[in-house]
Amino acid sequence: MTWFTSGRSDSEMMRPVGIPSRQLNEGETVVLHTRTHAKALLLPALALIVLLVIGEIGHFWLPRVTSLVLWALVALGALWYVVRPVLVWASATYTVTTRRLVTRRGVLTRRGHDIPLSRISDVASERDLIDRLLGCGTLYVSDASTHGRVMLHDIPRVEEAQRLINELLNDSNDRAMRDEGV
């Protein structure tokens, strides 16, 4: 997870982030960039171990030709149960800027969802026992659109992300009230 704060230098702010700088509006900066917690990679890692064990057992107990066929099946299984989930994990990002929440996901077809901070009405988090042990959780972002509620699963340090978004919301509300002269 990459956290940016206003105390960062300009050179640190220029580091690569989840969305290209050309997609940022004038005056907009990235405050938080993250992806799903690495716990999403536990099942692919377990699948890889199981597939390798199956391949090794077949190598020692099956005839050579059958063993080669089994290794080919193990390779296909590794592509589907290991490589594909890792690519999906690596391609999904969540970015909070000073003006919006940006979600991007997809390997071949990229999908994105941008929610302006001004439309967010509530930010909540949920952490079960496993999430608390691993330091992640689910972030619920409610907005005034027809989509209603966006769930961001397995966000690392979810409580800090929630606090950060709430601070941005409060800052934007304070600015709006000052601009209206209230």
Detailed description of the structure:
The chain is an alpha+beta fold and 182 residues long. The protein has a domain at 41-87. 45% of the residues lie in helices and 26% in strands. The protein has 5 helices and 8 strands. The chain has helices at 10-13, 42-61, 64-91, 129-134, 158-180, and strands at residues 2-3, 30-34, 93-97, 100-105, 111-116, 120-126, 136-143, 149-156. The strands form 2 sheets. A 5-stranded antiparallel sheet has the order 1-2-3-4-5. The protein has a 3-stranded antiparallel sheet with strand order 6-7-8. Strand 7 (136-143) and strand 8 (149-156) form a beta hairpin. The model is unreliable at 3-16 (pLDDT under 50).
Short descriptors:
elongated, 3-stranded antiparallel sheet, alpha+beta, 5 helices, disordered N terminus, 5-stranded antiparallel sheet, 45% helix, 182 residues, 26% strand
Short synopsis of the structure:
This protein has 182 residues and is an alpha+beta fold.
Mean pLDDT: 85
Q: What is the structural class?
A: alpha+beta
Across the major sheet, the strand order is 1-2-3-4-5
Q: What can be said about the biggest beta sheet? A: 5 strands, antiparallel
Distance linking N and C termini: 37 Å
